[in-house]
Amino acid sequence: MLEGKAVMGETDMKQTMKEDALSLAAKALDCFDVTEPTQIARFIKKEFDRKYGLGWQCIAGTHFGSFLTHCSGCFIHFSVGNLTILLFKGSAGEVASGPTV
């Protein structure tokens, strides 16, 4: 488990789902080199799709930005060493309308 090694960013996942994300990240890092972030992301995404239903997205890498909408309770962002992992289930939520000028 990566619990002691992972640096937690933002998350709104329940504890069991968060533990699954960390456990799968550990398994992915056992199977793939840290220089293969696409393979790591694919592994985590496919396992979350299998366990929690389709629609999961996973980004893994060392330098990236993001701006996204996610389902409530389905977002985690953490780092292991230099590798950052962002896992979320997408949402087509309404965009808040701002004031008109």
From TrEMBL:
One GO term under biological process is: microtubule-based process
Q: Per the record's keyword annotation, is Secreted included, yes or no? A: no
UniProt keywords (A-Z) are: Cytoplasm, Cytoskeleton, Dynein, Microtubule, Motor protein
Any one of the GO CC terms: microtubule
Name the Gene3D superfamilies on file: Protein Inhibitor Of Neuronal Nitric Oxide Synthase
Judging by the UniProt lineage, the source's domain of life is: Eukaryota
Where does the protein end up?
Cytoplasm, Cytoskeleton
Query: Is Cytoplasm among the key words of this record?
Result: yes
MF annotations from Gene Ontology: dynein intermediate chain binding
Kindly name one Pfam family recorded for this protein.
Dynein_light
The cross-references to CDD domains, in alphabetical order and at most eight, read:
DLC-like_DYNLL1_DYNLL2
Q: Which family does it belong to?
A: Belongs to the dynein light chain family.
Q: What is this protein called?
A: Dynein light chain
Q: Which organism is it from?
A: Brassica carinata
